[in-house]
Amino acid sequence: MGVIELDGLTKDYGDVLANDDVSFTVETGEIFGYLGPNGAGKTTTIRTLLGLLEPTSGTATVLGADVHDEDALIDAKQRIGYLPAHLGFNEEVTGADVLDYHASVKSGDRRDELLEIFTPPVERPIREYSSGNKRMLGIIQAFMHDPELVIMDEPTSGLDPLKQEEFNEFARDECERGKTLFFSSHVLSEVRRICDRIGILRDGKLVGLEDVETLMEQGGKHVRLRTTDEARTELTALDGVNDVQTFADGIQFIYTGEYNTLLRELATHDVHEIDISEPPLEDVFMHYYGVDGEGEPNQEVQSDA
Amino acid sequence: MLETTRYETSRRLRGTVILTIGVSLYVSFIVWYFSLVDASAYAQIAESVPPAMREAFGIQTIGTIEGWLGGQIYTFVWLVGLGIYFAYSAAGKVASDIENDRMDLLLSFPVSRSQLLLEKFASMVLPLVLLNVVVGGVTYGLVVAIGETVDPMHLVLAHLLSIPYLLVCAAIGTVLSVLVNRAAVAERAAIGLMFVLWLVESAVGAAEEFSWIQYISPTHYYSPTPVLIDGTYEIMDAGILLAGFLGLLIVSQVLFQRRDI
User: Fold this and answer.
1) Which domains does chain A have, with CATH numbers?
2) B7 with A104: Cβ contact below 8 A
3) CA-CA distance, B158 to B230, in Å (whole number)?
4) CA separation (Å) from A182 to A28, A49, A197, A201, A232?
5) B11 contacts in A (CB within 8 Å)?
6) What pLDDT, on a 0 to 100 scale, did the predictor assign at position B230?
7) Using the beta-carbon criterion (under 8 Å), do B110 and A105 form an inter-chain contact?
8) ipTM of predicted complex
C-alpha cells in the first residue's frame, strides 16, 4: 500500500474546481514532487490530505488513514511532518517557544541535530525573523519528531541558495533513511534536482505522472541565440525544434531532438551568443501537454493509482 | 493533553497581569472617591437619574458602599467592561489563527479539532481566575482601609456568580471566532453584540410588550448590586448562564468541526 493514495479526489469551491478527479500513489521511501504553476490546486490537495478540507468527492489515504476519518488521521499525524507554504507563528514568542510548544505536542527528539543544519535565531522573537529564518524554523518543526512522511508545500521558498542546497542534501539523506517526502513546487529545476517522481497538476487536473528523467528528456532544452538570418531559418527547420519565437536579431525555441544534431548544425553558422538552459515549467507544459496548453496531452497520462 | 492550554496561557499572562493592575487601579480610585463625598449627595444623584439609566448602571442604592461598588465596579467594569473583553478576546482566538495561517500547523498536530478548540478556550481560565481573585481581594482591602464594611461573603458571591456570566461572554466570542474568517471582523462583532445585548436588556425592561427581549441577553442573568447589598440572587440565573455557555460551546464545536480551513 502506498504512503499516500489519492482516488478521484475532487474539491469544488463553487467558483473554481481546485482539484478535479486527481488520482495517484506515493510509494514508501520516494521523494515525490507535486509540480504545477501557482493556483493549480497543489495546496488544496495537501490541505485535503491533512484533513483541513473536506473533499467534494473521491477520497485519499495518508499512512493508511482515510482523510474522512478524524480519529484514524490523528493517529497517522503522529508520524507525519508538515511544512505549510505560509508559515504562521505567533509574532511575540521566540523560536524556542514555538519549538517547545511543538515538541510538547508531538515530541522533539531530533531538534538539536536539526538546529545544527538549519540555524534560525531561536532565542529571538518571531517578529524579527526574515522569511528564510521562518522557513528554517518550519523545517525543524516538520522533521523534529522524526516522522515517516513529511508533506511540504513550497519548502525552499524564502531560503537563500546556500540553504536551499543544504536542504536538498538533507532531503536526500532523509530519503535514504527511509522517509517518504512529498513536496509541492512551481519550480521545475528545484524539483528535478531531488525528486524521484513527479506529478504535474494543471488547473486542478493531474496531467502527468513521470519519473524525473523521463520528464526532463521529453521536456527538452530552452535554446536562445543571436545569429544571422539565414542560420535562423535553417535552425528552425531542424527536427525537434518547437515553439519558435523570434526577437530583434535572434530566436529562441525548445529543443527536444538529439543534442549532437543541434551542435553540428550550430557549428556551421556564425553564432554571436547562445544560452541553453532548462525550459521554464510553462514551456514544458506547452511542449509536453499540447501547444496551447488547453489541448489534449501529446503523452498518454498514466495513472498508477 | 493541555499543551495548547499551557502555551496559550503563557501568551496571555502579560496582558492579563496588565489588565488586572489596570482594573485594580480603577477600583482604588472609585473606593477612594467614595470616601471623599457625602453619602446623602449620592442619594440625590440616584433620584435625579431616569429609571432606565438607574437600571442600566445599577445605581439604585448609590449612597452605600455596597451600592456604590455594585454600580461603579460590578456593573460598569464586570458586567459591561469585562463582558465585552471576554467576548472580544475569545473572538480573536481562532479567527486570527486561521487568518494568519497558524491553524494549518495547529491542525497538523495529532490532536482533534474539538480538543484544540477546548484547549484554546480553556486559556480564558487565567483572566477569569486572576481578575476575580486579585480585584476581589483589592476591593475588600480598600473598603476596609477607608473604614467602611462590606460582607466578605457577599463580595465572594458577586465574583463567583460573575464566572458563569463571563464564560457565556467568552463562548459568544468563540462562536463568532469559528464562524468568521477575519479576526478583526469577529472581534468587532463581539464588541458590538455584547454592547447591544446590554443596551437592549436595559432599555426594554421598562416596555411591557417587548420585555421578553431582555431574556436573550446574558446581562439579564447577572445582577451584582443586589448580591452585594443583601446577598440576594437567583440560583436559576446562574443555571441558565451555565446552560447557555454549554450550548454555545457545543455550537462552536459543531461549526469548527465542519468548516474548511
Assistant:
1) 4-216 (3.40.50.300), 221-277 (3.30.70.100)
2) yes
3) 11
4) 11, 11, 10, 14, 43
5) 90, 92-93
6) 84
7) yes
8) 0.86
